[in-house]
Design goal:
This protein is mostly helical and 273 residues long. The protein has helices spanning 6-24, 32-47, 59-73, 110-115, 119-134, 137-155, 162-170, 181-196, 207-221, 227-232, 237-250, 257-260, 262-269, and strands at residues 87-90, 98-100, 106-109. The protein binds zinc ion (ZN).
Amino acid sequence: MRYHNTLTLSIVILLTAILASCASGGFNVFPKSDDVKLGMQMQKQLAADPQHYPVLNNPALTNYVQSVENRIAASPNVKNKDFHYTITIINDPKTVNAFTIPGGGIYVYTGLLKFIDDESALAGILAHETTHADHRHATRNLTQQYGLQFVASLVLGNNPNQLAQIASTLGTELSVLRFSRDDEREADQGSFDDLNQLPGKPWYPGGANLFLKKSLAVHAQQPGQLQQMFLTHPVDQQRIDAFNADLQKSGQPNPSAAQLNQANYQRYKAMVP
Ligand SMILES: [Zn+2]
């Protein structure tokens, strides 16, 4: 008869528990500092590729979008206040999209700024992106993607450089930023909650829904225009319905003119090349 080593047994128990939480989707094996490190690495890769990610140099416009983001990041609903929620505008008028890197870097395409009509839509989209970073979707996805083998090697301490290896293989393909439908639902919910919990509700908590509704309508007319966004952020009636249900519950189904702040938004939109 052979006896189990107590250490081996406790590792098996630990791994079983981790596997169970992996299956439920919420487990993240990375410390928060890895989100920041991974984000810095991706930021460098993006900055080194101006052909695909040409940064718009317009301080007035960037500061405006950043000022909206700063107020969202201060929402009581944002947990990771130590992340750097920094706006970069990519000068690509054909792309109606935005994305977030781990640790809070948010990239907004000029095509998106041109597509939307008011400040609540901008705030809603930024709050959606903020949630991807705040809820640490990228490293949570990496945990799931690399699965038990990866978690085991971390727990056993076999490969302490694994994060660096993963980061180096990511390149600028941004595969880690392809989020699941569950992540998207969570980011929509976060968008609503971030804005809904801001004192005085400066923006309509359904701001992202204004964008989703317009996207669905435009996509039905000209499917080519929003192709890239629909690949990374599939828009469907379910997402719109989820917003509508929250808006009904909150007792504010429609935005006020002050929340839309349309004239102010249009003033900055006019700066978009
Ligand atoms: Zn998203």
